[in-house]
Amino acid sequence: MTNPDRSRSCNGPAQLAGVDPKTVRRYARMRDTGMSVDAPIIRPKLIDPFMPKIEEWVERSQGKVRADKLHERLQLIGFTGDERTTRRAVAKAKERWQAGHRRTYRPWITEPGLWCQFDWGWGPKVPGPGGDERETLLFCAWLAWSRYRVVIPTWDRTLPTLISCIDSTLRAFGGVPTYALTDNEKTVTIDRVAGVAVRHPQIVSAGRHYGLQVHTCVPFDPESKGGSEATVRIAKADLVPTDANLRSAYDSFAELRGACAVFCQQVNTRIHRETGKTPASMLDIERGRLHPLPPSPHTLALGESRTVLRDQTVRFGSVRYSTPSGLVGSEAWVRADGDELVVVVDLSKVPVRPGWMQGPAGLSEVARHPLSMPGRPVIEPSHYPGHPQDKDGSPRPPKPKPVNDAEKAFLALGPGAKSWLIEASAAGATRIRVKMAAAVELAALVSVGEVDLALGLAATAGRFEEDALMSIVQHRRHGTRPADLVVADETHSVQPGTSAWADFGRPGT
């Protein structure tokens, strides 16, 4: 644009630029006053005289006033604009009010070995002790400085369960921090007097046992324990089956325990975006600032002490309750929780931990049964894998185990030979060894597959006589398929009929 100072007029530059002289004059005035020529032009609005009143009402309502109600008030005092103009003005007034009243937070910079946090979250549904699906809970804890996380699945959130989870968590940390921060639950805070939280005496006793002081967050202030909230959110997003994570449902509580152990291993060996290091490597540094763990767990609220007997059971109230394998001779604590019996074991003292004992060592719930009466033991079949008795009490079919060459040669024919041996033994057939040798000789003449199929048919039909196997093989060699054979059942009869007997017993017959 031509400089208007040289022409001492705005008309010439306006003609050269193709704009109105007023535009040239306005830009020259903005330049002389130091204003930015790129700034938007603010023109007077119809609602400008009413803006002080709008800001007053927004301040009085703490930023909650509705724009439609405020528009009605403005119309009473002379505003003639539409509601859309009022809504825009109220939105800007609320934005300015919130900017002046927005809460700010100081980053929580903690020291090594000082703080840990824990919280609860709802877990997935898992088949319970009775077979029905039940809701589970996820105990989520993290060490603030190293960001090391621990997730433990439980059936409830009672005080004994809380103490056992704290013990397992501290043993996973390898030490005890100075403070623990959690929510205001009845298991931790039993009352509030003048805004001061009153601790549960057993929580205080457990904290004294471990050298840990339990604190609760400020009510309605989740930011004071945001780390544990984030741990719960991340754990639920990965462990609870949803359409987003494509995780299938869990078949047992032990499977959920294993999934939690895998989740903890993944998040603790992954580089954290805040520290640039893995939580596991940070934990190695923080362990030097943690207090040492007591050798024995706190068992004040865990129940009565028992010893797991040789039949994998514990006795409570003159009733035997089963426990998982690998705990024979270990100390267990049992307690009644409503109408259920809870069995807790210190896994750190188990000499050899089986595969189902995944997760952190320490106090852990290993079994939960419905309470029973004397003379009615409660035995969970899944605690005895490979037992010869099925879940419904019926005996399982025997598994043939050859002990000599003749038996190995017969059982090598295939599954039909195994079925024939089991059914023939159950039917009390005679000369079984002779018939087995004859079947091996016949397989060498015909074929192994043909003889094995014939043995399966013989076992199904219950034919164990001397020439039954040869008869079946010859019958099949003539081309008759098993599907073409007539099988006697209740819908067929070989009798010609009963119409001749319809008048039997009537007079004149």
Summarize the structure.
With 509 residues, this protein is of the alpha+beta class. It folds into 4 domains: 4-101, no CATH class; 115-289, Ribonuclease H-like superfamily/Ribonuclease H (Nucleotidyltransferase, domain 5, 2-Layer Sandwich), CATH 3.30.420.10; 304-383, no CATH class; 405-484, no CATH class. It has 16 helices and 13 strands.
CATH superfamily of the largest domain: Ribonuclease H-like superfamily/Ribonuclease H
Using the alpha-carbon principal axes, give the shape.
Answer: elongated
Taken in chain order, the helices and strands follow as HHHHHHEEEHEEEHEHHHEEEEEEHHHHH
CATH architectural label of the largest domain: 2-Layer Sandwich
List keywords for this structure.
alpha+beta; 509 residues; Nucleotidyltransferase, domain 5; five-stranded mixed β-sheet; 16 helices; four-stranded antiparallel β-sheet; 13 strands
Explain this structure to me?
Belongs to the transposase IS21/IS408/IS1162 family. The structure is a single chain. This protein is α+β, with helices and mostly antiparallel strands. The chain has 4 domains: 4-101, no CATH class; 115-289, Ribonuclease H-like superfamily/Ribonuclease H (Nucleotidyltransferase, domain 5); 304-383, no CATH class; 405-484, no CATH class. The protein is 36% helix and 16% strand. The protein is built from 16 helices and 13 strands. The chain has helices at residues 4-7, 11-17, 21-32, 51-60, 67-76, 83-101, 159-173, 201-210, 226-239, 253-268, 279-286, 405-411, 415-427, 432-445, 448-461, 468-477, and strands at residues 115-127, 133-143, 148-154, 179-182, 189-193, 196-199, 213-216, 304-307, 313-316, 319-322, 331-337, 340-346, 363-370. A hairpin with a 2-residue loop joins strand 9 and strand 10 (319-322). Helix 2 (11-17) packs across helix 3, helix 14 (432-445) runs antiparallel to helix 15 and helix 15 (448-461) packs across helix 16 (468-477). The radius of gyration is 41 Å and the shape is elongated.
